[in-house]
Structure formats: C-alpha cells, structure tokens
Design goal:
The structure is a homodimer of 307-residue chains. Helices cover 36% and strands 26% of the residues of chain A. Chain A has 307 residues and is α+β, with helices and mostly antiparallel strands. The first copy, chain A, folds into 2 domains: 3-162 and 299-306, Ribosomal Protein S5, domain 2 (2-Layer Sandwich); 168-296, GHMP kinase, C-terminal domain (Alpha-Beta Plaits, 2-Layer Sandwich), CATH 3.30.70.890. In chain A, a hairpin with a 4-residue loop joins strand 5 and strand 6. The radius of gyration of chain A is 19 Å and the shape is globular. The model of chain A has no long low-confidence stretch (mean pLDDT 95). Chain A binds chain B through residues 17-22, 150-154, 158, 160, 162-163, 187-194, 196-208, 211-212, 217, 220-221, 226, and chain B through 17-22, 150-154, 158, 160, 162-163, 187-194, 196-208, 211-212, 217, 220-221, 226.
Chain lengths: 307, 307
C-alpha cells in the first residue's frame, strides 16, 4: 500500500501578546512520521521513539483526527502511523499539534489532496482536544500553513496567514512540567479593559510589524500585560532570561505557548547564538536541565519528504 | 505677520474592534482654520462658524495645545486662530481632534516645521484632554498622519501608520447628543478574557486586511463584542442600520468613535450611495434628524491650503 514520510514541525503559539490567536512555525525540531494507507477501516498508531503515548487511536493526538477523516470518506481504507517524536511532549512548542497536523496532512496526501488546509486544521483540532481538552488551533494552523498565522475567529474558523520576514528563533526548554490545563486554569476569567486595550495595541503592532518587515515594531509589540505576568511565575528564571536575552540583542520574546519553553526572536544567527548562550548560562547556574534550539521561522509548514 | 489656512479633516476612531487604538482619516467633512503668527506671547481663538466654543484658550480644544507649543519655543510669538467648524461638535467623527490637530499643524508650519508629526500628536492630545477629560490619540493621529493609524501604546506614545486601500465611507450623524464622557462611563472596567481574545483576533485581522488590501478580511474583522453591544444602545436604530447597510453591500462598520455617528465602509461609490439611502430611509422613518456624508479615506491628513 501507499506510504509517505512527513516532517511535522514545532510551533510557538501566542507570540507573547496574541494569546490563543497567533502562532509561528519553526524549522526545528520536527517530528518524523510514517503514514501508510491500509485497505481496512482502522487506525493503528505505533511509536518509534520510546515516548509512552496512548496506542488507542481515539485517545491519541495523531489517531483521533484520522478517525474523523475516516468518517468523511466512504472507501474501505485506514491508516497506520509510526511516530518518531522529536518534539518533547509538554515542552510548549506544539508537540501534540505536530502529531495531529502531521497525521492529517499525510493522510490527505495519501487520499489525493481531497481536503483544504482549513479542513486539515479542523481535523487536527480534534487531536488538540484529546491532548489538552480544548479545541485550539494556534499551534495547528502554523504547523499546517507554515509561517505566522492569525486565528481571527475559532467559531467560525477563520485563519489568516501573516507574511513575515526570515527571523532567527532561539528556544530553551527547561525540564519542568507545566500542564496546558494547569497553565490555563491559573488565568483569570476577566481582564481589565485597560489591559485588554494595551494588548490589542500590541497585537495590531505585531501583525503590522510582521507584514511590513519592521523589526523594531515587532520587538516593541512583543509585550504581554495579561497572560505572561501570571504564567511566567511557573517558569524558573523567566524574568532574568527575558531581560538578559534582550540585552544580548534579541528583539524580544516570551513564553512559548503555555510554557515552559521560552522563545526569543533575533535578526541574525550570531545574535540568536548569543541568546542561546545567555539561556544556557542562566539555567546552568540555577542547575536546571534544559534543551536549546537555534532555528528560523519555517514558511512552509508540514512537509512530505518521501512518497 | 505670516498666516496659513488649514483643512483639518474628520476622523473615525475605534474602527469597531479597535477601541482606543485604531482610527481613520476622512476626506470630508473638514474644518477650515486660519492661523496667524503674532509677535506677542498670546493665543487668541475666535469662531467664524456660530458654534459657541470657549474663547479662553486654556479651555479651548484648539487653544490649549498652542499654549503648550508656546512653552516649548523661546521667541516672543503667539497665534491667532479663526475656526470655521464644519465638523459638528459631539458628532463622534473627531470634531475636537480636528480643532486640536489643525491648530498645532498650522502653528508648526508657521514655525518652519520644527516639530515631528509625533510631537504634534502630543501637543494636540492636550486639546483632547480639554474636550473630553482624557488624553486620547485615536482621532488625533489619523487627522495628523492621514490614513489608518494604530496607537500601539499611549505611554510611551507609539503610532503605527497602517497602509490601507482606497475605500468609500458613508457616515450618518443622527442629531442626538452622546457625550464622550458618558459613552466612556457606561463601559465595564473588566471584560471577559474570551471576549478580549475574540477582539484581538479581529484587530489582527483588520490590520492584516488593510495592509494586504483584503476586502473580505476587513469586512469579517469589523466586529466588536465588547464596546458596541453596550454603546449601541445609546444610538436609535443602530442594529437595523448596521444590518440593512450590510445587506446593501457595505463591507461592515459600526459606531464612529463614541457615537452617535455610524460609519460604513464600501468598495465603490455606488454601494456607498446605496448605504447612504438606507441610512436616510431608516432615520426618516424613525423621524430623527440627521446628516449624511459619502466620502473616502483621506491618506494625507491635515492640509495647508494657503500660505
């Protein structure tokens, strides 16, 4: 039967000021997934990476969206998925989104590209629901579309690709666990109107900065007066890292998704490497194990690599 | 002594989803102001229009910013301003902003353009404080810069010009009084996080739509789940006008500033005229006196017309 290999990249949701609406695709790390078309209506998930993820497809982030795809097609087909996960679960750089987006994009390719990108986001969101209890699209969308995406509205789904310059991204993933559901629960249900106004100024600024290639504006707009002050308390060394990275030349940055990873944007590779060293120094001093990535914005999204 | 005539145009603040951060400049109506350089440190304000505005410069929207300019220059100079107001005070299309922006832009011209546009916004905001008690810049900025502007931040002031397509704007000004201070007071100090998220999706969408000339996206993003539901209750016929104008082909629209004017964007003149007829019909039926304008986005802002 037909089989493809797909690379499903990591993503940074929220982009500081754009809680639940903005997201950005990274070139590294990425999951590698093999997806095979079966001639039976079943979904088989297996792991090639040692992560202990649920093998019941209905409970698996990659499996649940494929079950939904099967509901949409009449043929007697199924999918077998082998996941080689490179994006650590719980890192806050879209590990579950990569599984969900990768499986649906691969399945669509095997089916002859019968679904649109927006359809794929809808299917993949079912995987996010399995992973975190919430059907959100701020990691899924950039993973499928590439680049920076805005979720203008989730009901009805309205995804707006935002053109962006080629920027370097430094990510540090401290080895602590922040569950998405916990990170959501500590947020207040109400926010001050004056804070919301400040936030929407920044979102407008960030979107304009990306489209206009205005690096200074991007940097100034990477400010979050609502979510970051609360969530950053869950991440050791956050304030120091942010301050020191900006002193080292980063344009700005903050919590990636619901954390614990922290991301920083830089104009060039040398700065991004300096930023990485700053992060490493601080976490080495604190004595916190961590992973570091220096990468770039991925304008392409999920990628079929072998047919 | 030197004298200039300046046209200070009307502006639409908020642009539905961008409360306190977005604004747009109109080609019509505009105030006509004559500003003369005096050789004495004084500011004289007089009116050529019959509106009963304060003649004490410290209490006048055009005068107070000029007093601030005098504090910044050492020379023994002053200004005489004759205002021919065409933008009705209290209309919600930036009448006070036009007085303030027009007087400072004319003064700057007479002084040899010693101040930047951003400086002019700072001075003119003093006029807004006199008019409404709040130093806001969402009408001032588009009046001075032209086009669509985003106030990313008010402290520190950060104005972002947003490129926009040439759109038609229909405005109806029902003859009722909505005081800016009252319109502000009825707003809740806190908003639901989920509503704020929806709002920032729309702001991102509107900014992207303007820059990318994406008319559909602009239309979809002209949605306000926070301010409009409250303020629209102060404007008779609001819901019907909005709905009927959209049925007549308008891309979308809503309350201009704090009202009572309602604005609608259209792609072409014929649609903008249809929209005007819809507005007229509804207010004629209700029996509410009103003024109507069909105009376009003004990409230039305040304009010196005679030297």
């Amino acid at each position: 039967m037909k089989q493809v290999t797909i690379h499903a990249p990591a993503t940074v949701a929220n982009l500081v000021c754009g809680f639940d609406v903005l997201g950005m695709c990274l070139n590294e790390p990425y999951d590698i997934m093999q997806v095979k078309l079966l001639d039976k209506r079943e979904v088989i998930i297996s792991s090639a990476d040692g992560y202990n993820l649920p093998s019941d497809p209905a409970l698996n982030t990659a499996g649940a969206p494929l079950l939904s795809i099967l509901e949409e097609v009449k043929e007697s087909i199924g999918f077998e998925v082998i996941i080689n996960k490179q994006i650590k679960p719980g890192s806050g750089i879209g590990s579950s989104a990569a599984s969900a987006a990768g499986s649906v994009a691969a399945a669509n390719h095997l089916l002859g590209d019968i679904f649109s990108k927006e359809d794929l986001v809808r299917f993949a969101m079912i995987g996010e629901k399995v992973a975190s209890g919430v059907k959100h699209a701020d990691n899924i969308s950039p993973c499928i579309y590439g680049g920076v995406t805005l979720i203008r509205s989730i009901f009805p789904l309205d995804i707006v690709p935002i053109p962006s310059p080629s920027l370097y991204v430094t990510v540090v993933h401290p080895q602590i666990e922040v569950r998405t559901s916990d990170a959501r629960q500590i947020l207040r249900k109400e926010v001050l109107l004056k804070d919301a106004i400040r936030q929407w100024g920044n979102i407008g600024g960030l979107v304009a900065g990306f489209i206009k290639n205005d690096y200074d504006l991007i940097g100034r707009s990477l400010e979050d007066v609502i979510i970051e002050p609360v969530r950053s308390m869950l991440i050791p060394g956050f304030d120091e890292i942010k301050q020191q990275c900006k002193s080292a030349g980063a344009m700005g940055g903050g919590i990636s998704g619901s954390g614990p990873s922290i991301f920083m944007l830089s104009r060039d590779k040398a700065t991004a490497e300096n930023v990485k060293n700053v992060m490493k120094e601080i976490y080495d001093r604190i004595g916190l194990a961590h992973h570091l990535y220096v990468t770039t914005i991925n304008h392409e999204g999920v990628k079929i690599t072998e047919d």
